[in-house]
Sequence to fold (299 residues):
Amino acid sequence: MKTTSLKLSALAMLAAGSLVQNAQAGEDLFGYVKGAESLPKDAVELYQKVTVRDGKSVGSYQGIDYETELEYGYSDKFSVSASAKFMSLDAKGLSVDGYLPGDKDVGFKTSGAELGMAYMFLSPAKDDLGLQATLSLDYDWVDKHSGYDKDTLSLEMGLQTQKYMLEGELVWVGNMAVEATYADRAAINNLPEDFDWPTDPEMEIELKFGTGLSYRFAPNWFVSAEVLYETEFETEVGQERWSWFAGPSLHYGSANWWATLTWLPQLAGGGEQFDGQDTDLHLIEKTEQEIRLKVAFNF
Fold:
């Protein structure tokens, strides 16, 4: 009788782990921080991500980034991905030395491409703590901040951790990453007088840290909160910028598709500022807030 009870308990635990894995594998419960659960072997997921970057305290500024990504589960632990990036930009009444010469209206256009891979060392559904490593190579030929031509090559290495609690109702994730970037601006004719527009290649190192907590409040529905800290170091100026972002997300997931909507305002920032800026936030490369929608379909 005792042996039968132990077998039933073991089966129940395996079933619970399988249920958590099927419900969460490949799903992004957050807009920015990522979990450590890998796609299953031979699974394919198509993502569409739209990010609105809005507000620089003066004038009018709104940039929209679009990314279409296809990810393939090569095994239960290893996946590869490729994405195409697009953008649009509308800036008025704003001049940022070295970044935005003046008013700019850019319609929908291609802006870059990215290749990535992820390897899951520990599964959040089967181990006490999930652990995944990611590597991505990103090439952009349009500067999303200004809309002008700029060649940017970035290599990012990241680690993601994830833990299920309360039988999967509560999910915690933690992220850290380092990104190395080579950037080369194209020259611009008829710049404003005394406007600084460096065309010498630059090298930058960016550090990123993030964490988030998500709660399933109804079947298939999660509400989440996440916090991000980012800082960048540049060859000539040292620490060029830093910023804190935090905000909520709402996630819905079904068997064949899922969606996540996130609002992420900037809470604090520092480093370089532009003339006329009327807030202490970092608003040269960042904005006052971001809104992100991610939709994915499973195949």
